[in-house]
Specification:
about 120 residues, mainly beta, globular
């Protein structure tokens, strides 16, 4: 298991912005690693927010398209989530995820960081 350390969560007013970061410590990931963000609101299932492949292909949940941007820095084993125009319904615990398929699969999760959007 490789630790993923998240940062950047907090309390923000509606319409505000936050930037989440997630870094993997101790191991360098090279290729075919999908990095992403998921979130879980109270009483709801964990859902996809955004992912980005090694080649830079991005995928977003419909609810965040045009407001959130995922990016990555491979040399730093880091994935970011820039969140703009935040809404109260974005309130959740946000989890980062690094995963890779065969022949050397893995699926690592961060511990989660709280994002609260409230006036």
């Amino acid at each position: 298991q490789v630790p993923l350390v998240e940062s950047g969560g907090g309390l923000v007013q509606p319409g505000g912005s936050l930037r989440l970061s997630c870094v993997a410590s101790g191991t360098i990931f090279r290729i075919n690693v999908v990095m992403g963000w998921y979130r879980q609101a109270p009483g709801k299932q964990r859902e996809l927010v955004a992912t980005i492949t090694s080649g830079g292909n991005e995928n977003y949940a419909d609810s965040v398209k045009g407001r959130f941007t995922v990016s990555r820095h491979n040399a730093k084993n880091t994935v970011y989530l820039q969140m703009n125009s935040l809404k109260p319904e974005d309130t959740a615990v946000y989890y980062c995820n690094f995963r890779r398929g065969p022949p050397s699969p893995f699926d690592y999760w961060g511990q989660g960081t709280q994002v609260t959007v409230s006036s």
